[in-house]
Protein 1
Amino acid sequence: MDVDAGHGAALGRALPTQAPAAKDLPLGKRLRSFLSFPGNDEDPVAKLTKTHRGIHPSADAGVLRRSYAIAENMHRGQMRKSGDPYITHPLAVAQICAELGMDTTTLVAALLHDTVEDTSYTLEALHSDFGPEVTHLVDGVTKFDKAFYGKAAEAETIRKMIVAAGKDVRVLVIKLADRLHNMRTLDARSPASRARIATATLDVLVPLCDRLGIQALKRDLDDVVLYHLEPDSYARIDDHVQNRPGWQDYLAQVSSKARSALRRSRVTAEVTARPRHYYSIWKDTVAGGHAVPFDLPRIAVIVDGPATDCYAALGAIHGQWRPVAGRFKDFIASPKNNLYRSLHTTVTGPDGRLVEVLIRTEQMHRYSEFGVATTYRYPKTAETTDPSGADQLSWLKRVLDWQQDTDAAQFLASLRCDLAEGQITVFAHGQAFELPSASTPVDLAYELSPDTGDQCLAATINGRLAPLSSPLRDGDVVEIFAETDEHVAVEPNAPRGPRKEWLGFVKSSQAQMQINRYFDEKNEPGMSIADKVKLGRATIGLTLRKHDRGLASEVPLRRLAEELGYPDLETMLVAVCERNLEPDMVVEQLIALVDHPD
């Protein structure tokens, strides 16, 4: 899914001259025939293997070389719009994954992630060569063909990716690495394409990265999006960052004084400068209406001890410098929706300058940087110290629940809403709930349960009765009153169920979907492409039974799809489902293909 791909004359599908003779050889011999790099004496996988083994010393470098060899061979002849050989893209994606600390399986899938989409390499061949895990990851990031699916292709591709990530979150990690490299090489595209791709990245992929907690990747995505969408602002911030006289000396002074304060309080901790990335500076500059880039000095205090030591460190810092009122946040007691945990405070530092301070344990720091990738980067400690587990991906489970009941366009719109960067935490029935900013009591009611949402009558916010359309604020305590509550009196002729006007103010995907479902329950939801593929496959299976035949594998089906001019088997199966292809005709041709292969 390289958005910059520029294919060679034969779309890169034709193998080098030795390939037709080599394709029937065992995998080992085929790979030896692939492992040649004409005109290049350098080892193209050396940096990748060095990075990977630097984090995972016992990793199998051989499988990386084998997967690179196949990817290089299959993509040979394809070029990117930048003019670089296409293989440079999957190699760069694998390198990004390696720097995150992902496992060998992820790196293999990253190297091969575009082969099924852009070359003649099939999922069956991939499964045979590298097994089911790699196959699932590659299939999860393979796009649907726009020529056959039109405008629905993008939304259906994202839905497919999310469903695949529900089984293995590494699908999303590869997709994010793929998009990061594409964004880094976006200058080869037209201005309109750059704006479109950057906006799509900001709308969906950056929030996805944030939900996965991979801040090390999100910072790079943020900055490259800013570079393409706000080039003038990026240039001003870059000039500001490159020309800050005395900045490093000041941070060194602050860090030294912080270490002294921590030692006096007998808190063992590492103190480092923590400069902010460009997008973060830009966001605060715009939010505050500042004429010049607004960028406070910042340090991080990494405590060597339990979470309680973070509060001891906070006391030491506040004892050294006066804290700024209203600038303290406790994300340890109340983690963010991606389970980010840290203490944030702002103090009046040396020379009266404001300084931001982050305080966290080493474990919290790992998860703040690498999120779901932490369990792959630190596999030995993850089993005993991973605080996230299934909770970190609870939002993904919620998305998977409601994606089944929406069409592709509604799914994508709901996903964008669900991933909204602004989030608030409200409290009800002794529990905390994460909601999009400016959510209302109706949004909260649907978070409690679909029935509570449908039957919501009234609400109190912080003990006071409030309209159901009232925007909630972070920290509000809310009570919902529903028709089914025993102590609520409902007039006999009063209208029941949700109101259509609620759609004008609800913010959460859950509320929007449930309200729409209530009013559209007589209409059948649109079938997804995945559903049509299943139905098409089942239709062919039933038609084959009329002839007392069956399929031992999908190889003949894929060969027939190719002969009929479809880009892949799934597209042909959709055509069968939609009756653009008659199943009897497909089965007749299939039987002829199997019985008379010549």
Protein 2
Amino acid sequence: MSVADAPRGTAPGLGARLSSHWFAIAVALLLLIALGLRVWGIGHGMPWAYNSDENAHFVPRAIGMFGHDLNPRYFVNPPAFTYVLHAVFLVWFGGREGVSEAFASDPTPVWIAARLAAAVLSTVAVGLMVWAGNRLFGRAGGLLAGALLTVSFLPVFYSHQALNDAPTLAPICLALAGAAGVLRGGSRRDWVIAGAGLGLACATKYTGGIVLLAILAAALAQAGADRRGALRGLALAGAAALAAFLVANPYALLDVSAFADGLSHQSDASADEAGKLGLTQTNGWRHYLWALTWGFGWLPLLAAGAGAAALARRDRWALAMLLPAPILFIAFMGAQERFFGRWLMPILPFLCLLAAAGVLWVVALLARRRPGLRWVVAAGVAGIVLLQGLVMSVHIDRVLSREDTRNEARAWLSRNVPAGRKIVIEPFLPGSWAQDPGLPSTRTSTGERWLKWPTSRSDVDPKTGERVPGGVVVNVEDYERTLRPELIDAYRRGRFCWVVVGSHQKGRALAQPDKVPGAIAYYRRLEREARLAARFRPYDPGAKAVPFDFDRSYVYFPLAYERPGPEIWIYRLRGAPCGPPVDVR
């Protein structure tokens, strides 16, 4: 059997009965659902972006480009999404003056515009996923693959963030559509599409380059029938990939040293053991397999396994195109010292296609005796496979559409703690949280509403526990390692009578109390010697607190969550003189 004659699906006849008219309607409906799931709750947390990566990377750098040339001067993350945001801000706000004024006075419109860009690109990925699935397994396969990507939890959640994770899915799906075209025929256009998708994926997120394996598999399939044609196609795809990469990341060539430094830093960061306090899992491979059960779904995973088994019998080149990438990706990423669920997202399109093949195969088996009920069976099986993702995606959208606990806590502080007072705020919040947007306070030298304890410095080295004359800079990841009971005496001496504690920090210590006994003793003393003035819980009334986890505590996956944010405790130290508000006027 030649490549061109390879079977286009594992449920013959199912896609053929779907006319182009109804197929177009189904795709349009799917895209509307995908967009709806990705924009519902998109304004969560405003006017603050609480995700530290969202707050630090793409939006500020896209704005910064208005003050200099288009060199991002930062390549730890590739700049394609930054350029997209720069263009969006140019159109939306009219350029430097408009976006700078908006970001300074009320950053909400800027964040919303950036998040909408991510949501739209993620929705485009769904359409491209349908195209790739259609080319591999027919119309029904395309709709199934697109539906799986539509409701998968990780893509839905991270489409609400101005990060490059969800946008990277679009070029990956484009490359898969091109590779599928190569596998099923191999026109020049397909090679160009595959290469362009690869280049754009790498320019958006470096790990998006995993889609290269699919292109190589399709090329090997073609080489069996036309070796020279496959080599020419690979050369064409390579040229298209390089061109697309340089269009979306031109300073990789124009500023080679900065680009190399960024790549080196990214590699070091993924292998760095810093910030491991609070880990509930220490095995990267086990962690990623576990993350797939909720980030993608149990039944979709089983369907992907069934799809791999079906393709092993019916379409081995399609299997070669889809299966190696997830296996090798997890093998490599699981060997790193740091691992997070969202880093799995580049392989989700592969799993969607495998799961679509599995659903089609199961439908073919179940409907063999009753062909007339094929569509009923297909709807039932697809509904079951999609159910977990749909339920959890609706859950997270409902959570994100409600008030964040961090906003509630700030509103309480604004009402009850006068401006200029001294307070201790654990570093689970962005620095701008203490400032009224567009209205810097005249009561503090920093312009913040309250005078904050310097949690970014400590006279204890977090790595050794030794005293350091003059102190050291402490990053957010090491904060718990610097806590000790004596700090409460220092708070009193300095008239810092209010202490704000968040479970995103405290939870790390509680997860591994043996590693930070000083922090445990600190929290116990704080509870003994302070009055709990206010408490803000993100959970349903009566629900138990969710144990800290570096993934699910930030994406609010458990159904116990009612609203976004950590649990927050606000304490008033007994015997601590607050004194009058500071006035620097």
Protein 3
Amino acid sequence: MTIKTVRNLRRLSQGLFLVLFLLLLLRTGFSGVLSADTIRDFRLSWPVAVFFQVDPLVSIMTILSTWRLFDGLIWSLILIVLTLFFGRFFCGWVCPMGTVNHIFSLGKGNRKSLFGTNVIESNKWHRYQKLKFYILIILIGSSLLTSLLAGVLDPLSLLIRSIGLVIIPMVGYVLDFLGKLLASTGIGALSVIDFGFNWISANILLTIKPVHFHTLISLGLFFFLVLAANRWFTRFWCRGVCPLGALLGLLSRWSILGMEKNHEACTDCDLCLLHCQGGDDPQGGVAWKKSECHLCLNCQAVCPESVIKFKLFPKDTKDQALPSPSISRRRVIGSLIGGAAMVPMIRSGDSFEANANELLIRPPGAVSEDQFLSRCIRCGECMKVCPNNALHPTFLEAGWEGIWSPILIAKIGYCEHTCTLCSQVCPTGAIREITLEDKVGSKDHPAISIGTAFFDRGRCLPYAMATPCQVCEEWCPTSPKAIYLVEVQTVDPDGKSVTLKQPYVDPAKCIGCGACEYACPVVDKPAIYITSIGETRSAKNQILLEKRR
């Protein structure tokens, strides 16, 4: 088999894994007519978390932050072992984020990038490529003090939340806008196109209606800046920032597959540099940077003198290859201390516990906040799978440490009473997997509560305006209902005596699902709202002294 055939197999592998990744992401959702009966104990049939299960960055960081290995993450040992044999092949053959970065690096011309920089010069190794190793060490330091910040920069988490929470909603909005525009023309043929758009949204995007996500702008800007950087440097994220790439680069130190170069035969044509994806200096006369190579094999495939060859057990000489990154020991120690110091600095502020945002409502099944921040990798799977668009990424509601972690915003969507989907997709146990009985409760097992509802009587129609309204009571899903009505005599604006029913909340029965807030007819600022007090996951954040019933 020729080297060009192997390179083409690598390209095919990249495409297949990217398609598989997108397919699993699109299958992360509920397909069907949403109702309490259809979603009751609904189970996802696709292994949507499989990419996280082979991600050694997620596995190692969760071990450091929680001192336990979650079910499924043991599969990451397969990738670790393969990396010890073949080097950083995951970046060049498998990683969907790497493939997306490479796609956005294409089309820069033979010698010049989009912004005029020399492609050959940009593809040489640069000092900025050391940055990813220091980032990895900072993340290790924070994980040791139980803060899992690695999810912010993990490439798989980044791609899932960017596509699931930014790209798909944008596509859904465009389809909905165009469909309504075509339907408004009254032309039958165009209405068929509108039907097609609706079918795509419901069956491919798995969105019954256009979804909206909190702080989408921050997510989108971050993702588009990552993509735009590829126009200056090929696969800039992979070379300079990616902590998973740094981890695999360190592990590749012991790989048995490596490069041999015949420096004397090199004619300095620089074709290898022109096509290099890793910035690992494959050209003659320079030591190959083993920890940077993505094993794309482009250099060997395009070399006209066959100067470059990848072999098992190659010659291990310093003029041939540098197996380990040249990073400063002093900076390594400083990065480790800096990462560890970030945690007490963040958590000693008032936003972590003493003055926590009352609207920080975590998904049902979420563990206590300190454990949640030691497990959540901000992948966005729970937000993508939520059928009511109730879960959203935070910005600063959970402080800087909790950025882009999930919260419930009831004004946009409510927690479906019989739905357990978010607990099914969480790969690290930040949301423990719960059953239908856990969610709705039973005689011997109280229902999971994520908060409690409160009335704003200055805005509630029966209280403030003597206007009949019982929408909140009708929408309350608990049995018996947490919202009950009391008949009272009052006076309407004309001075006439009227009889109407005023709603009250029983905090012992309320589970904080947010259905009442979502349905409240006072839409600008609902007259009933949910806060986190009374949540099952916290022993301190309680409104009742007695046990919930």
